[in-house]
């Protein structure tokens, strides 16, 4: 805002009057009153035991639940991202069977509630008491007891991961389709096969569009893990509920859990911001970053070393 | 057979859905020939060029390029459609330069040129980059090797695109209006590179609006209109004395 005085035609400086933003002050006042009242209602509520909140905030059961929540979130997100990329490529493939399969998968996993899917995986033993992996028509193979494999943890990871894959496939598809068609034509004209064109040319460019929403998916996943409660996955929410079922401090433990969820979301938001700043504008650096992406594209030689 | 035409089209027909674009094109290019194609927009000249390297499917007639029927191979008395792999192998023998450059946006100029040798030709990375550097030097862009396409001018991008198309040592080069998207002052630098290529004996098919280039560098000039070849001949003769009224009308509008 300008503070320097303006000279009038005679050359005399005339200072600038302060602008009063009445709307802002009024909105601020109303917000303060309403929010203050709501907070006061909760904070000053005599039925709420803040001491208990503090006691349970660092309870070992809560802390181990946080760890499980993070584990499930990370693993389910990884499952979802990897599978999602495959589904997106299948959907855009020229093979009608693959297209149809991917569409069916996406429809099924988006069409059924994730809660239902979680309970389904957890109770898989009702349908298949044993999981057998063997070479057909022989006795060579492996066998597991379904109930031992499908613990709360694995069914949570599988259920949430398979579900995320369906949503993420659409994100990846949008990213792939946003890459200019000319890039594909140039890749073909150079003698690339469709698969190579996808890996070397299209996907690295689609990343720029895909990466920002993945942060969002992860943040969402952190809290979706609370659904694991229904399959006793020993995550934050499950453990909090175990405590309040024994001592009836329901509100206190919900506050404890919420505080931790908010902290995890805040950390994830900061990480997401970094991810976007680093890769959002320029997917190329990610490609050079390491791992699979670095092998897909060659490292650029140092400018001074080549000439 | 060294005298076999590099491109031999007879009665080539092609349509996008219900709109027929090529109504029976007859056209041939001899080894080492620089063949320029002119014609109004929508005349099918770009579509024909894209048919030559199989980017668009031919729906009728015969199109033989580099001794092969494009899109099909003859086995047991029948033509079998190519697999994506066969298309890819065929296209490595043909370089293509696009109107909109189509450089890979996530790669530097050097990476663009080295991309096909590495990922298609299986050349080791260091060797490929070394060769790419030489190729960039050939088009006068050694200083810009590590820049991204968006950091280069249109003319520089198109020169990188030419170097990239040459990286697989093609026998035939296709140019699809290579200077149409350029600012006027950048056209010459691209035409210079193409001229040098022509003098080196490269077989080239050039769809262009640059009549001057066609006259100076071209061996033959072909006029396309409404999906057919209207007139064909040596550039100087065709430009001086064309027989067809359609050719005359077009030339008078561009010259």
TrEMBL record, chain A:
Residues 66-272 form the ABC transmembrane type-1 domain. It holds the Pfam family BPD_transp_1. InterPro entries: AA_ABC_transptr_permease_3TM, ArtM/GltK/GlnP/TcyL/YhdX-like, MetI-like, MetI-like_sf. The chain crosses the membrane at residues 25-44, 56-89, 104-128, 149-169, 249-271. GO terms for cellular component: ATP-binding cassette (ABC) transporter complex. It is found in: Cell membrane. Keywords: Amino-acid transport, Cell membrane, Membrane, Transmembrane, Transmembrane helix, Transport. GO terms for biological process: amino acid transport. CDD domains: TM_PBP2 (cd06261). It is a multi-pass membrane protein. The keyword Cell membrane applies. The keyword Hydrolase does not apply. Gene3D superfamilies: MetI-like. GO terms for molecular function: transmembrane transporter activity. PROSITE patterns: ABC_TM1. PANTHER family: L-CYSTINE TRANSPORT SYSTEM PERMEASE PROTEIN TCYL, MEMBRANE COMPONENT OF AMINO ACID ABC TRANSPORTER. Belongs to the binding-protein-dependent transport system permease family. This is Polar amino acid transport system permease protein.
UniProtKB/TrEMBL annotation, chain B:
Keywords: Amino-acid transport, ATP-binding, Cell membrane, Membrane, Nucleotide-binding, Transport. Pfam families: ABC_tran. The keyword tRNA-binding does not apply. Gene3D superfamilies: P-loop containing nucleotide triphosphate hydrolases. CDD domains: ABC_HisP_GlnQ. InterPro entries: AAA+_ATPase, ABC_ATPase_HisP-typ, ABC_transporter-like_ATP-bd, ABC_transporter-like_CS, MetN_ABC_transporter-like, P-loop_NTPase. One of its GO terms (cellular component) is plasma membrane. SMART domains: AAA. Its main location: membrane. It is a peripheral membrane protein. Belongs to the ABC transporter superfamily. This is Polar amino acid transport system ATP-binding protein.
């Amino acid at each position: 805002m300008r503070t320097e005085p303006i000279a009038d035609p005679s050359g005399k400086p005339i200072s600038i009057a302060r602008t009063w933003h009445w709307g802002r002050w009024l909105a601020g006042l109303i917000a303060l009153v309403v929010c203050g009242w709501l907070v006061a209602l909760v904070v000053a509520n005599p039925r709420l035991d803040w001491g208990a909140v503090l006691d349970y905030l660092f309870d070992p059961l809560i802390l181990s639940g946080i760890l499980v929540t993070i584990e499930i979130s990370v693993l389910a997100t990884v499952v979802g991202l990897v599978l999602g990329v495959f589904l997106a490529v299948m959907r855009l493939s020229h093979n009608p069977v693959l297209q149809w399969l991917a569409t069916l998968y996406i429809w099924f996993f988006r069409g059924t509630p994730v809660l239902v899917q979680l309970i389904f995986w957890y109770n898989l033993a009702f349908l298949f008491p044993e999981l057998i992996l063997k070479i057909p028509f022989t006795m060579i193979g492996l066998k597991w007891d379904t109930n031992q494999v499908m613990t709360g943890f694995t069914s949570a990871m599988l259920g949430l991961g398979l579900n995320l894959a369906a949503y993420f496939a659409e994100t990846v598809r949008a990213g792939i389709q946003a890459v200019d068609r000319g890039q594909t034509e140039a890749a073909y004209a150079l003698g690339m096969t469709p698969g190579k064109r996808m890996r070397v040319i299209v996907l690295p460019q689609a990343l720029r569009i895909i990466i920002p929403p993945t942060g969002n998916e992860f943040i969402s996943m952190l809290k979706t893990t609370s659904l694991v409660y229904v399959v006793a996955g020993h995550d934050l929410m499950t453990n909090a509920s175990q405590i309040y079922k024994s001592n009836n401090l329901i509100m206190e433990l919900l506050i404890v859990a919420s505080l931790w969820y908010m902290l995890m979301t805040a950390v994830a938001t900061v990480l997401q911001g970094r991810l976007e700043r680093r890769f959002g504008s320029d997917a190329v650096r990610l490609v050079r970053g390491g791992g699979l992406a670095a092998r897909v594209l060659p490292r650029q030689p140092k400018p001074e070393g080549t000439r | 057979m060294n005298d076999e035409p590099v491109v031999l089209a007879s009665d080539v027909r092609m349509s996008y859905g219900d709109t027929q674009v090529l109504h029976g094109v007859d056209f041939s290019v001899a080894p080492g020939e620089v063949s320029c194609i002119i014609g109004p927009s929508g005349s099918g000249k770009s579509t024909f060029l894209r048919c030559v390297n199989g980017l668009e499917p031919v729906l009728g007639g015969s199109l033989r390029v580099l001794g092969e029927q494009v899109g099909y191979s003859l086995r047991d008395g029948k033509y079998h459609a190519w697999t994506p792999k066969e298309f890819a192998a065929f296209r490595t023998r043909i370089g293509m330069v696009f109107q909109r450059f189509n450089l890979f946006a996530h790669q530097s100029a050097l990476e663009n040129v080295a991309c096909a040798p590495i990922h298609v030709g299986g050349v080791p990375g260091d060797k490929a980059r070394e060769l790419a550097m030489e190729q960039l030097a050939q088009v006068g862009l050694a200083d810009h090797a590590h820049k991204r396409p968006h950091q280069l001018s249109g003319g520089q991008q198109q020169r990188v695109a030419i170097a990239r198309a040459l990286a697989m040592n093609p026998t035939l080069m296709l140019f699809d209006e290579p200077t149409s998207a350029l600012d006027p002052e950048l056209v010459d630098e691209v035409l210079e590179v193409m001229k040098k290529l022509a003098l080196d004996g490269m077989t080239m098919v050039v769809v262009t609006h640059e009549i001057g280039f066609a006259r100076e560098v071209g061996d033959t000039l072909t006029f396309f209109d409404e999906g057919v070849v209207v007139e064909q001949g040596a550039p100087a003769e065709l430009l001086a004395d064309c027989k067809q009224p359609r050719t005359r009308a077009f030339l008078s509008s561009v010259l």
